[in-house]
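Table 4 source record.
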Amino acid sequence: MLEKRSNTNIDLTHRNRSERGDFFIPKKARLDLHDGTHFKGMSPNWQTGSYVGEVVFNTGMTGYVESLTDPSYSGQILVFTYPLVGNYGIDEHAAESSKIQVSGVIVSEAAMNPDHSSSSHTLLDWLHSQNIPILMGVDTRALTKHLRTEGTTLGAISMRPTKPADMIVKKQSNTPSKTITYNPSGSKKIILVDCGAKENIVRSLMQFDLHIKRVPQDYDYSNEEYDGVFLSNGPGDPTHYPATIEQARKAMKRGKPLFGICLGTQIMALAAGADTYKLKYGHRGHNQPCLETDTERGFITSQNHGYAIDEQSLPKDWRISFKNLNDGSVEGIAHRHKPFFSVQFHPEACPGPTDTLWLLERFYKSL
């Protein structure tokens, strides 16, 4: 049984101050995994109950605000492999959605006194304001190695042991209930299918002369006039989006440009007749190397996904456009004759490198 603990700036025997000077006393807590393994740590005294989610890890050194608000992390407990998190505080203007999306946070060390001119909260204060649990003082290296070996699994952050039978994840909706329009005077109109889109996708698309109609993932746009369709990122298993897949299939019949990122790539593949599968521990970080197959040019990319396209199932009129250089998995597909293409990584990044922003320009020029 793993019971590791790394150095932390919290001492269980002493009181501590947050950025605002409020006293709190951390208490012993733990992470129980579905396979019976558990890791010890500490949590703030306001934290009670048991918090369940799929335990995944992110290798990024920065961008914790963006990651914690990324809708693709909905229903997941996020482990940060970088040892210190929260050192530049919280700037909510950097958020990728209107709330924290994760079900829990696990760190080796949480900074208590961040220093940044745009910071308005400490990490702990921000999590507390939305009742998001955190487990600190964890040997995140040992936990990450365990997840890489055994694969991602359900887990629970709590004060006392949690049985596997009690680890039930509540399904959450991350898509808007109504349509949103941006720049109606744009020369080209696109349908942005929101399966849990990051806000930086909209910000990046707004750099072009586009009329953007942002619609829920189950919205029927088949009878509308548009110049192209953009399929967004989002959480979970792509096969759980039947309405989105069906609408993408209808869009393909019209032959107009279709572009997808992350979950959008998987949706496009399923609409084309291919299959997807769950990765052992996913790709979550800002330094994933990918190869563009046509040019054999390499790119460092930002990624956050747990599923991939089965290369062998892709129809003959489609091709692989990008591959992951770490594990060889599919990172992009394109139709051989029609203007349909997508990538598994995030060209708009934030956080992460912007080496592939040119893909958004390619989509714009295809309209």
